[in-house]
Design goal:
This protein has 1 helix and 4 strands. By secondary structure, the protein is mainly beta. Strands 1-4 form a two-stranded antiparallel ribbon. A hairpin with a 6-residue loop joins strand 2 and strand 3. It is globular, with a radius of gyration of 9 Å.
């Protein structure tokens, strides 16, 4: 299952450079993860200061 970014996202941008498949993009108002590109590695969740990326 792909990760999703929940509403606790503060749009800090820490997650995007950590994604090995470039599945994370800046949204309005929070970042989003493309489920077709996400490989469920958890790199985004490891660096998020507010634990916004969660596995579905």
């Amino acid at each position: 299952m792909a990760y999703v970014i929940n509403e606790s996202c503060i749009a800090c941008g820490a997650c995007a450079p950590e994604c090995p498949t470039e599945a994370i993009s800046e949204g309005d108002p929070i970042y989003t993860i493309d489920p077709d590109k996400c490989i469920d590695c958890g790199a985004c969740a490891d660096v998020c200061p507010v634990d916004a990326p969660v596995s579905e």
